[in-house]
Amino acid sequence: MQPLSSSITYKPLSRIAPSHFYAMVQCPYKIVLAEAFERHPLIPLSANAYIGSVFHKLMEKIVKRQVTEDDFNEIWENEIKSKEDVLRQEGIIFCIPLKSHVQNIGLKKILIKNQIKANQNLPVDKSKNVEYFSEKWLQNEDGTVGGMADLITKYGGTVSISDFKTGKLTYNMVDESGEVVSLVKEEYEYQLKLYAQLYFINYKTYPDHLYLVDMNKNSIEVDFIHEECLNLYKQAIALYEKVNIDIKKKDFSMLANCSTASCKYCLYRPACDSYHTWLSSNKSTNDVYGVLTNMKKFLNGNINICVQADGNNFTISGISSLFEDLLAKNKNKVIGLYGLRKNGENNFSIASCSCIKEQEAMNIYTLYAN
């Protein structure tokens, strides 16, 4: 069977973004595939990911004091409508309306709205000028490392860079004494410290503070020293150069680094030969890759299929009858199914972001139930 990599048109990396650097350190091939597919995910994002960008914009406006409690609801609705319009233009309609596909959206709305009052209560010395620079582009001299900093604030002679996150900012671990400690996620530290170095490259001075801000208006200051920012930057440049050399040689053998952490939510895993090999001995992701051996249609229109992989038979249920012809065409052929819902041992069903890939044609379709 011809490997998938032979049918992909690879492109040299144009740049490394601070927001992608950590992922690239973990698995360079993920970013190579993202570049090859022009950053268009092969697996649909969840509604939570799309609504996250709405939350992000609202949090930014609140920090800049551009939203009041009186006009919050109107701005909330406008931002959601704007995002839905973009999704429709891109042909992504499975998660529209967003409000119907995001759990606890009412609670999340309240959490964001509460930030308005909290932000208004922060002391501001009106004698000191405050400048906000949102979505500020920062890059090095040749543009090989660059990205958009969420918010740069200049106040009272100090400069801070803030990055907004809709998820958890920290993770817990047990230290040597047996105590549970909370640490900032490493990928967020990498991102902010790279922005600090890019700021230095542009303005010949480092920012004074780096902040992570979540939906609850929790703000964590990330400690840093100039040397570690520079070292991360040098690491990014070295990785950029190495990966582009490997792309030119078409040598991808050392770029893929498969693990549950790297692969489970990778949006490009349907195109990764290494992942499919790794999947045969690792069942920690809700994906199935094998031969479609049987299919059965029920009176309600739903279809169940059986896929054989590595001597095991997997059942996938709840597929819409709209995909009957596609499944019939691929019977006794290798297919990949991604983002399934696990119901039991070797038993899966279709979830909101499930998709199927034809091995021979490299076509990917989003699946759904009737």
Structure description:
The chain is an alpha+beta fold. The protein contains 10 helices and 15 strands. Helix 1 (18-26) packs across helix 2 and helix 1 (18-26) crosses helix 6. The mean pLDDT is 87.
H and E string: HHHHHEEEEEHEEHHHEEEHEEEEE
Any idea what the shape is?
A: globular
What name does CATH use for the topology of the largest domain?
Lambda Exonuclease, Chain A
Strand order of the largest sheet: 12-13-10-9-8-11-14-15
How many helices? The count is 10
Structure described in brief:
The chain has helices spanning 18-26, 28-36, 47-63, 72-89, 105-120, 186-203, 226-249, 260-263, 273-279, 324-329, and strands spanning 130-139, 146-155, 158-164, 170-174, 180-184, 209-213, 219-221, 288-297, 303-309, 312-319, 334-338, 341-344, 347-349, 355-358, 364-366. The protein is α+β, with helices and mostly antiparallel strands and 370 residues long.
Blueprint of the fold:
Elements: H1 18-26, H2 28-36, H3 47-63, H4 72-89, H5 105-120, E1 130-139, E2 146-155, E3 158-164, E4 170-174, E5 180-184, H6 186-203, E6 209-213, E7 219-221, H7 226-249, H8 260-263, H9 273-279, E8 288-297, E9 303-309, E10 312-319, H10 324-329, E11 334-338, E12 341-344, E13 347-349, E14 355-358, E15 364-366
Parallel strand pairs: 3-6, 10-13
Antiparallel strand pairs: 1-2, 2-3, 4-5, 6-7, 8-9, 8-11, 9-10, 11-14, 12-13, 14-15
Helix pairs in contact: 1-2, 1-6, 3-4, 3-5, 6-7
